[in-house]
Specification:
mainly alpha; Arc Repressor Mutant, subunit A; three-stranded antiparallel β-sheet; MarR family transcriptional regulator; WH_DNA-bd_sf; WH_DNA-bd_dom; WH-like_DNA-bd_sf
Length: about 90
Amino acid sequence: MFDEVVHAPNRLRICAFLDASSTAEFSVLRDLLGVADSVLSKHLKVLQDAGYVTISKPTGRGRVKTWVSLTADGRRAYAGHVVALKALLNTPE
């Protein structure tokens, strides 16, 4: 199913990256997308509000890092969106 939340290019790239890994650190996603912290934060907020990602900041020694993971709902939404995109590409003209 085509998913408007996932469809935005940066959010699609975030979901694709997270689908291939269990978790990613905020700075890795920021560097992957080549965007400012604020831009990534806005996209993650949209995904989090939709229930597609979880964001955690485990405390411990040193600098606190922000970790992002795709939820089960997020994986389903991403997979469904990919199927919908592939169906668009395979539609005869």
